[in-house]
Amino acid sequence: MCTSLTFESTQKNHFLARTMDFGFELDGRPIVMPREHTWTTHFGQIQHSTYGFVGTGRKLEEYFFADGVNEKGLSIAELYFLDEAKYLPEPVEGKLNLAPHEFILWVLGEIATIDELEQRIDEIVLVNAPVSLLGITVPLHFIITDRTGKSVVVETNSGAIEIKDNPIGVMTNSPEFEWHLKNLNNYIFIKPTNNSTISIDGYELKPFGQGSGTFGLPGGYTSPERFARTVYTRHLTEKGQTTGDAVNAVFHILDNVTIPKGVNIKNDGAVDYTQYRAVMDVDDLIYYLNPYNTQDVFSVTLNEELLTANEPTEFGIEATFKATSLN
To answer: Which is catalytic among the residues 1, 2, 144, 259?
Structure first.
C-alpha cells in the first residue's frame, strides 16, 4: 500500500510526493548516489550510471531505492501492484535485464526526461527475480514526473512494459491505472461547497453543517478509496505563495492517506502503516523526508559535492517525537 501524487506550486516548481506504506520494516534512509556509480544487476550485467540522484534506500547486495529525484529533475516512486504485475520468466539476450526493484536505479541513473524514457524503454526488460530483503519478486508499478510537470505511470499488467499518461497526477495500488481513472466517475458529485437547502412538500431539508458537499468522499485505506480521496484533495488544496507553502500543502494532502500503526492489519498479522512520507522538488532538487516516529521533516539538497563524491552518501536520522516548549 502506498499513495503518490504530483503537485505544482504557484512558482511553477514541480513535485512528486508519496507515502511508503508497508508491513515489513524497510529501514530506509536518505542516500545520495553520485554520478558514474557502478552497479551490477541481478543478472550480472554491469551498469555505470550517468546521473547522480537522491532518494530513500537501503544497501543490500546493491543499493535498493523506493523513490528518488536525479540531478536532471526526473523523479520516480515505486508502489505495490499486487496480483497485477507480470514479468518475463527468463532474461532476454540483447536487452538490459532488470529485476523489478532495479528499475528505479536504471531510471534515475540514466534518464533525464519522460520523453527520453519513452524513447529508451525498449532497451530493458523486467524479469522475475526476488529481492533478498523480502525473498520474493516484488510486484511493482511506478509513477514518474519531470520538470515539465508531465506525469506517467509505468505498469506491466499486460505482460509488457507500458508507459501510460497520467492526466490527474495520482497513483495508488491495484487495480491497473485505467480502472482507477474510470472509477473517478463515481465521485463527480463531490465538491468543496455545501449542498443547497431543498424543500419537499414544504418541509425544508438542509445540511447538518459545514462540509456537506464532501459527503460520499471515500474515507477508507483501500487503494481505490485513497486514489479518489487524493485526486479530490490534490485538485483543490491551496498552493500557497512560496515553495515552502507548496511543500507544506503536499504534506497536508498526504495526511489524508497516512496510515497510523495498528489500524490496518494484513492477513499474516503484519501491521501495514506509513513508514515515511517523501516530497521531491524536481526543480530545486530537494528531497524532503518525514519518518513515522516524528513530525519533523528532514531534507537533502543535491549539490556538486554530493554528486561528485567517490561513494554513496547515507544520512542517518534521529526519528523521535519532539515538541517545542513555549514556557
So the answer is: 2
